[in-house]
Model the fold of this input.
Amino acid sequence: MRVIGGNFRGLKLTDFSGEEVRPTSDRAKVSLFNILGDMVEGAVVSDLFAGSGALGIECLSRGAKKVYFNDTGKLSQELLKRNLAKIKFPIDAEVTKEDFSLYLSRTREKFDLIFIDPPYGSDFGAEALRMTAKRNLLREAGVAVLERDVPFTGEIPGLKAYDERKYGKAYLTFFARGEAET
Done:
């Protein structure tokens, strides 16, 4: 697992074993950040189910203004701290360990990017998207990216799924503000 672009390009992030933390593959990360393009630079980002922090650290490497990392897992918190130490834990990073619904209900921040990568098999991703829409947490041109092991089906009032890509076992679904088309 490594940083693939920006100031920290090539930096090897702390690895792990087991099933608790499932990182986004390098192949998926390359494609994801190619799709996002220049919108990362200067962005305010939420890495909601942060795990090792790889997506948020990638954003910091590419010039994000601020990244909020959140994860409740003990292993995730340890990995995140080790990985942030590798980049000298910048002042433009904030770490919390709240349940995602509590975090989303309390944050006062508006985000340009929200990464939602919950444990596979849970409905936490759809719930996080509903809360994001209800609280209007995405800025006008903001994007929420949901990673799941199955394609996204259904609708999220206030958000529009506008793209979905499959990389190995992972599906990345991209959402913007607006209503789903019927």
In short: The mean pLDDT is 91. The first helix runs from residue 26 to 36. The chain is about 25% helix and 25% strand.
